[in-house]
Structures are given as C-alpha cells and as structure tokens.
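Dear colleagues,

As part of the handover before I leave the project, I'm documenting each prediction I ran so the next person doesn't have to rerun anything. This entry is a single chain, and its sequence is reproduced below.
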Amino acid sequence: MEIKSESEVSDNELQDLPLLLVGMHFTNRSILRMQSQLPIDFVNNNIRIDNFLANQKSDVVVLSGYPNPLNRRSPLFFLTGPDANAVAQQLQHPGYRFLRSGEFSVIRAGRTVVLGLFEQTTQGAAWTVDVNRTRNYADRETVTIETSHYLFDYSGDELSRQKVALLTAKQEKRMVAALARLDRADTAPVLPRIHYYLYDTLEDKGLITGNTDLSHFDSSTWSVHAVFNDNLRGTDFFSDANLLALKVLGTTQSKALRDGLAIALSDHWGRQGYEYWAKKIFDADQADALVEILDSNIYQKKSYLFTRPLAGSFVSFLLTKYGMATFSALYKAWPASGLPAIDLPDFTLINLAQGWREALCKLQIDATVVAEPSRQPVFQKGFCYAHEGYQIHNGYLSRESARSLTKLGSLGVDWVSITPFGYLEKKNQPDYFRFSQGAGSENDESVLAAFYAARKAGIRTLLKPHVLMAGGDFGWPGDIKMKNAADWRAFFSYYSIWIRHYALLAEMYKMDMFCIGVELLHATDGHAKEWRRLIRNVRQIYHGPIVYAANWWQEFEQIEFWDELDYIGLNCYYPLSKDDKVTLEKLKTGVEKFLPAIERVARRYRKPLIMTEVGFTSTEQNWKHPHESRRGAPVSLDDQALCYRAIFESFWDKKWFAGFYWWKWPTYLDYGGQDHSGLHRMVNRPRKLWRSGTRKPREATLESS
C-alpha cells in the first residue's frame, strides 16, 4: 500500500488504482469528486445511508469495495465522518479490521451501529443499498440496568429484563467475591463501573464489535462484551476479572498468570468450571509441564482449553501457598517466561511444579456423571456442512446458517460434519498448528453456533477438524511428509496438541461424534503405533464415538488402526467410468469395481463404515474425476444426480455400511443454484504421474472457493 496525501494523488491514480480514501468527506477532494455517484448522501457535515443519519462526533462511515465511479472495474474503500479525530482513532484502533463484514457500515464509539450490503438491480446499473440485508442496531430497544460495579446494556430480538436482572445480581455477587479474594474489598467505591454490553447472538456481537469470542474486554473503554443466550454465554466473569486485575494489580508479562488469575476468579468456565477441567486433564495425564505453561511464547501457541484451566489451578495454588500480598508482588514481577527474581522459600521451578501437581491430585470435583454421547453405531444421513461465506454474516454463526440447517433438516438429513481448520506453515517441517481464530473463520464460537443450530433443526454433529498448509498454498494434508523419524515424532506431538483441543471442545459441549484426522496419507503410512497412542489419549478426553476420514486413493487400504475406532471413515471420490456417455447401470458397474476393496476393510476390522465425504461436481461427465475442479465446464445437474443415484443404490443395503456425508451443503442458501458447477478450490500445480495407473490422488483439499 502506497500512502499519499490527498493533494498529491493524480487523476490517473484516482482512476487506475484501488483506493482507500481516509478523511472528512467535506475536505477530502477525492470523496467530494465522487460523492454524487455514491449510494451515500452527504448532508452538510453529516452522512446518510438508507434511513440512518451519521451525525455524531464519534461516527465513522466505512465503504468497502464499491466500484470506483471514475473506473467501475477498480474497487473503492473509504473511512470518513464528521470528525477527523474519530476517523483517525478508528483507523488506529488495535482491534480494528477495515473489512469487518458487509460492504458499508457506520461505527459509533467503536461499535458498529449500521451494517449492510449493496445490490445491483440490472447489469451495469449503479449499486444501491439492499434494505433486506441491512442491520440497524441503533434503533433496537435496549434494556439498561445500573449497579454498584456495572452499567449493563442488552439489546436483542428477545428482550428479557428479568434475565438481565438475574445476571446483574450474579455479576455483582461475583465482583464482591473477587474483591474479597484479592483483599481489596475496601477499594470497591473507587473502581470505575464496567460498561457491560450483552448480545443475544454471536453474529450480532461479531458484526457490532468485530470480535466473536464468547466474551472480550476493552480496557480503553472499560467495557466487557459478551454473548447472552440460552445456549452460549460469555458471562462467566473471565473478562470482568481481567479488567479487575488490571485495575487492582496492574499488568504482568506472564500470559499464564494473567489468564490464570482471571480464570481463578471466574465461575463455570467451560460450563463445568475451570477446576473440573483442570482435574480431568490432570487425571488423563495430559497436563502440560509447568515450564511450558510459564513460557508465554509456548503458552499462546497451545490450546486455551487446556492452558487456561491449568493456569487457573496454578494461580489458585500460588494464592493458597503465599497469600494475596505476596502473590500481588509475584504477579507484577513475573517475566514472560520462567520465574521472577524474588527471594522466597522453596521458590524453584521444581518445587512449584511438585506442589502444583500435588494440589491437582488432591483437588475434589463434582463426581456427578454427565451424560456422554452414545457409541452405539447408527446410520447417518449426512452432509458436509461448509462455512461457505467466510464472513460473520453468512458463515457458521450467522442467521443465514441457522436457516440453511433448518432447510437441510427438512430434507431428511439427520447428521452434518462441521469443520474447523488448522494450519501448518510447511508440509515437511514439524511445528505448532495454528488454530482458526479470526472472527470470520471457522473458530470455536462459530463451530458451537452451528452445532446448536443443527441440534435445534434435529440434526446431530460430527466435529471434523481438518489440516491445511498455511500461506498461499492451502495444500492437501496428504502432502505433509516429514524428513526423518525425529521429525515425525515432533509432528505427532504437535498434532496431538492441536487435535485434542477439538476433542475437548466436543467433550465440553457433548457433540455427537469426533473425527480424529482427515486424509493425512503419509502420516498414517507406517505410523499405526503413533495413531493408536493418539486415539487412546483422545479417548481420555472425548467419550463419544470416534472416526478417521481416509482418502479414497492409497490411504484407505493401508491404514492399520481401524480397530481402535468406532467407525471406518472413507472420503469417497473413486472415478465411476472413463466413458463420455453412461447409463445408471454402467455407473453402478463402476462402483462394483472398487466396492469389494471397501467391503474387505469393513469386514476385516468388523467396524461400520461411513463415507465421511462423497460427492460429484454438477458438471457434465463428472463420473470421470469426481473430486476435480471443473471451472468452465458445462453444468449438468442430471449427470450429478445420476452419479448420486449410483452411489445410493450400490451402498444402501450393505449391512456394514452406516451412512453418507455428501459434499457439500453451504451456510447460506443463496450460494450455488441451477447454474453452479460445484467448483472446488484446487492447488495449481502440475499433475503427477502415479504407478497405480488410473487411480490418481486428490491433489488438494475440497475446500470451496
């Protein structure tokens, strides 16, 4: 990005380059030049979008990707508003992302109050505001309740003053208890009130704040933002405690102590409470070493579902051992890694680790049996459910997604697979896997929102985490191949850290089934021992049925650990015929060529088999290469339906067969349509030659484009 003063920009640059214009519309001459051709009205120093007038000093108007009126082939972005300081502050806000969601928005005091999309009624016409897909949060009715320590604001479609009142009483009680534990009860009158914003959906929270965490805090505005509905609540005091610790104790360089103190002061973290999960993790012999927990660089790369309850239990141990006064000094002095240089008896890493583990061993938790998902095999009529929109307003956690799942349930579907992604920087180098965490990604909260929407639609869920290569490749996980035995050992250590995160997420929310891996061809070849150990470790965390999703090519028949699983999983993309013209019977004959190999595996291991993926693009002659992108190929829904029917009729009555997951169903129903060719995002690289003849591997994951 080249940055220039507006006065330095030439006419050619205005016409030929993608533009981001920043400043007040009545002083920025480029905006003034275009304003008559924009779907936004400038009224004196104010701005009108649809029926909303941005006239407050803190208002910032954002336009994202509109066709430049001077050259409609080039995109135009701008940030403008009545006040230059507000525009500058918005641009510099640490949590700000320019394209939050939608194509235009009004941000007021850091929170989105209007957001929407444009529509084009006819080809070549100017874009106008799509009133049906515009959100005006400023006009919502709001419940406001003020207490000694809080100012609560709740706006949503299902207002309930009684529910908000119950929450305010609970948070006040938690605050009083937290202050007492911190020995600061006498400081209560001088604490500023926390402005507590409650949202009834994760989608609204994300669209308004740009953050889809269950809760988050903003120390610059002394506020907490939390989702508040019957299924998901971010009101466990974790964010409140972060603000409280900042005010009472100040800052610490240790991420573990910062999280740990907030967790130790929280209530019902992870639904059961942090002590419950810390004890479960410890009893499963999967507690991280203290030296790693206290290393902030390692801490932030691991699963917060493991690190936070463990850090909370460690802080609780420190408070019990040393008392609040000493802990306060430790908190301020604790470095980003290791121990602070403080002279205390037995204050060594070895002694602290031993004392902490002894405290975990003695920890008592509620022994009430929590109902687990059944491991009894069931037939599954499923779809792979794809986070197709890649944005907050049309991905997993959106209202569009809930409507899409309702439609899917009406068609007789009773299972979906939900897929979060992990990213490995280099396919031949072991390292920590990066989690999906962005607000528009398949993050944990979006997975949970989709899970609850599916449950409401009468659909059960297979959680199916999937590995991609990061960077610009996003390659097929079957390409991951370590260089030597030491690297493979490191790979499985890192993979275990990543996959157990989702196993614990599935356990916390009682998801119906868990997939322990997808198409890791080289990682399964000759590594049965590592996978057996991994599966047994995951079973210590997740107690429902487990499957592995093997690639149809070389991997499926080479796997030796099927006996450890509850289901055999097959991503089925076998070619059905080489012919240009086919009949249903000819396609079924094609199925018969590979069906015996599938049946041999199922019968050998005496496990039910499910197709964790199966599908054909909606193009002509898709039976030749079902998995390949057919960009530009003629659309044929009839050819697609014929292939589907061949699979249905060939497998339906097999006693060892337990169901399909068809690739794929989108999170918003406008995606696809009668003219859609079922495109897949493929890696652009030369086709390889394989000794196996006509059986070629999928060269990339079938992520949608």
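The chain has three domains: 6-139, 142-362, 394-666. Residues 6-139 form one domain.

All the best with the project,
I.
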